[in-house]
Amino acid sequence: MNKQKIENYVKEILKEIGEDVEREGIKFTPTRVARLYENTLYGYRKKLQVMNEEERNTKVPEDVIPVTVFKCDSQEMLIRKVTFNSFCEHHMVSFSGVAYVGIIPNKLLLGMNKIDKIVKYFGARLQIQERMTNQIADWINDNVKPKGIIVVIKANHMCAELQGDNGDFTTSAVRGIFLKPEPNTGDPRSEFLKLIMV
């Protein structure tokens, strides 16, 4: 990411809206915006990678976010609540909220905070909530291969709020036995929704 280019572009935007780019309080805004983008939009420059505990404790490349998995015999549902921030791709304004991730493992178990890293990784780019919800579910489904994965995101979109509308939206993505329960296993989707009280 070329931070100097971003600073120059932000400075031009400030001029166009009528700001004095040399006044106190604004003079270093382009620098702050460039730093913010570098810190929060890392989803374009990094990648998630599944690792076992031994691999995780070796040298990890700078562009890799390690996602540690452990061998697991349990098939109990794991639910994680993750707060996140992202940017709407239509207006480049923030949307933020909570992602509820439910996983029924199958041989591999994610470290608890690794679910947080996955959610925040997909939020660390320009997004729409529907796509982000599916990306989280698909990545876990494809890379960890649980028996089932369900993701529910409840978020508030500042772009809608700024235009005088209600910015609250809820999306969901369902895979595996949350979508098609196995015989005599009950309904894990209903259990999940009851537990998170959506």
Distance between the termini: 39 Å
Number of domains: 2
CATH hierarchy, class of the largest domain: Alpha Beta
Rounded to an integer, what's the Rg over CA atoms? 20 Å
Would you tell me the overall average pLDDT?
94
Tally of helical segments: 7
Question: What is the total tally of β strands?
Answer: 8
**Biggest sheet layout:** 5 strands, mixed
Strand percent estimate: 25-35%
- Using the 3D structure, state the CATH architecture of the largest domain: 2-Layer Sandwich
**Shape estimate:** flat
Find the CATH superfamily of the largest domain: GTP cyclohydrolase I, C-terminal domain/NADPH-dependent 7-cyano-7-deazaguanine reductase, N-terminal domain
* Major β-sheet strand ordering: 6-3-4-7-8
The name of the CATH topology of the largest domain is: GTP Cyclohydrolase I, domain 2
User: How much helical structure, as a percent, in the residues?
Assistant: 25-40%
Low-pLDDT regions: none
* Structural class computed from helices and strand pairing: alpha/beta
The helix-strand sequence is HHEHEEEEHEHEHEH
